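Handout, page 2. Input:
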Amino acid sequence: MDNQLVQFHDLGIMQYKQAWEYQERLLQENLSIKTILREATDKGLDKNISVQTQHYLLFVEHPHVFTLGKSGNFNNILVNKDNLAEKGIEFFHINRGGDITYHGSGQIVGYPIFDLEKFYTDIGKYLRNIEEVIILTLAEYGLKGERSQGETGVWLDPQCKGYERKICAIGVRTSRWVTMHGFALNVNTDLNYFNLIVPCGIQGKQVTSLQKELGKEIDVNEVKGKLKRNFEKVFSIQLT
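Output:
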């Protein structure tokens, strides 16, 4: 089977709401195509239908924002709305899995809009593969990214109590096997903003970044290039 073609778009710096709406539009377009294909199949006309769902991979950097997953706990936000406004931080209660997280400058946020029916219908495998992309990317910087049992995302030293450090948060949504939302990898992120929340609702564990671990500012575009190559490798895709 040939590699799946995936349209790659680097959205640059974009407000969270704008990027969310863009993801929703791409997802809804794919769902509409799925409806057309299903109806054509039911009528025995599927061989005459050339339209197909499309895969996308979006990279973006958001201005300061906290996002809370659909089942997240508001108590994990440690400041009130007035404090958020004073600090120039937006807030959105959104429809992905997971709890509270922060997006901001120096962080690469990735949104795969994939039709998993063309890959595999297994959300767990999909999440593990996103983690694998991050783990391979960290390895190129000499860092050992790992999984922490029961906690989606990528960590450093997850088995060393008191030294666990989360470097990448992951939270997704799927509808009829079409994905949205994704991952947030801390590159040169100001980690002080995480002090205003309980990151991912996990008490007593730290958050880190490539910059903090390596002791120097990292070229964000270089990291994006590595992420793209590792997405192609792990998911057997071709970015266009």
